Amino acid sequence: MLNRRTLLGAVAGVALYALSPLGAFAAEPLKVVASFSILGDMVQQIGKDHVAVTTLVGPDGDAHVYEPTPADAANIAAADVLVVNGLDFETWLPRLVAASGFNGAEVVATTGITPREFEDHDEDDHDEAADGHDDHDHDEVAADDHDQEEAGHDHHHGSNDPHAWQSLANGVIYARNIATALAKADPDNAAAYEANAAAYIASLEALDAEVKAAFAAIPAERRKVVTSHDAFGYFGAAYGIEFIAPTGLSTEAEASAADVARIIDQIKAEHITAVFVENIANTKLIDQIASETDATVGGELYSDALSGPDGPAPTYVKMFEWNADELTKALGTS
């Protein structure tokens, strides 16, 4: 049992620790909410011990169809900083933020990025592509995949592709925007955020050079890949790959029978063998395309979400390394 002298000494020690320079590290970390897992990881890499990060759409989660919870509103209300992608990616978020009463700093990570404009296919071309083809049983697939749209969900994106993180050069811009926001919200730790961001950006730039070299070694005519939805446009533009997707920018977009027929024709005509599913997407449509061609479904790519901590893509850097490795292996042997 503590005697009076021991107890007073312990209390005095705690007080001295709190007032000492070392005790400053016991300050409460900055509360940051990130809209989805990729942003959450970036904030953690830059903020480290100075931030407490809450991610709304977690690993393997699909932000296109996410349904917010009351806990999400409470987390946003308590946050000092809210980090979002922007470019109409989180279409469900503005209403949630308004309802939460959030009065902290909101950071749009894509600020300063040149958006890639999404070009939809012309309906007449679809009709022409469909001539002479049946519906490839796609109506049944579409019905299974898009029941949520019939339930009244509204997750429509604008004309710009929001998946800007799929270029590491853009990832550098994300990191700078996040670091600037953290330093502004928590100036006492600004130097730490700046140092962490500098190291993180250096790793992204080094990886960017490696990925460019890896794909440059593959003949251009081989660099064609079919994926579940149109999430890799920035990746393709940055590293010289043509990504072909039966659906649009959102996983809720519904591919028409003509879209599927056109892609099947293209795979056959151009002998495309690299066909991938995504960690957030239903595999039925890709499986159908593969079954009607000579293509083999390869590994899993990470598009809009990281994997869990035990998976191959628990961080943004690991995600990029995994995707690049899976693609180079497939394209190098196609």
Concise synopsis of the structure shown:
This protein is of the alpha/beta class. The protein has 13 helices and ten strands. It folds into two domains: 130 residues, Nitrogenase molybdenum iron protein domain (Rossmann fold); 138 residues, Rossmann fold (3-Layer(aba) Sandwich), CATH 3.40.50.
List keywords for this structure.
single chain; 334 residues; alpha/beta; Rossmann fold; 2 domains; globular
Count of β-strands: 10
Write down the secondary-structure element order.
Answer: HEHEHEHEEHHHEHHEHEHEHEH
CATH architecture descriptor of the largest domain = 3-Layer(aba) Sandwich
Q: What is the CATH topology assignment of the largest domain?
A: Rossmann fold
Share of residues in strands: 5-15%
Number of helices: 13
CATH homologous superfamily grouping of the largest domain = Nitrogenase molybdenum iron protein domain
Give the CA-based shape: globular
Average pLDDT reading: 81
What is the C-level CATH assignment of the largest domain? Alpha Beta
Rounded radius of gyration (Å): 23 Å
Low-confidence stretches: 4-25, 121-155
Termini Cα gap? 74 Å
Largest sheet features: 4 strands, parallel
What's the number of structural domains? 2
Oligomer: single chain
Strand arrangement, major sheet: 2-1-3-4
- Structural class designation: alpha/beta
Share of residues in helices:
40-55%
